[in-house]
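Appendix B. Chain record.
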Amino acid sequence: MQPRWAQGATMWLGVLLPLLLCSSLEGQENSFTINSVDMKSLPDWTVQNGKNLTLQCFADVSTTSHVKPQHQMLFYKDDVLFYNISSMKSTESYFIPEVRIYDSGTYKCTVIVNNKEKTTAEYQVLVEGVPSPRV
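Structure tokens predicted for this chain:
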């Protein structure tokens, strides 16, 4: 049988231990740094009408934690969000099949990691030419 004071100590330990663990995890939340965010267009920023286009967003994120951070990547065209994905990967892509003139515009990507965010510069996609006639 435990003394009465030991029973109370066990109860307090049960309350304090989760609080200490939560504050420890909270410190880890802020241990992520978004070093850079970049965007690439394949095959290029100027593309022929009717060809395929892939937009890629790259995030360089460093951490002091052993936990791999979840990235939220947001793709914008002319400041309007058109694609949003959560991923553990540092690169995400958006595929546009058979681009048309209306796909021309200003594109950018924003990366969010634990309430920190960084946005690329704006890139101009230019779709040139007329589409090939369909028979």
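Further analysis of this model is presented in Appendix C.
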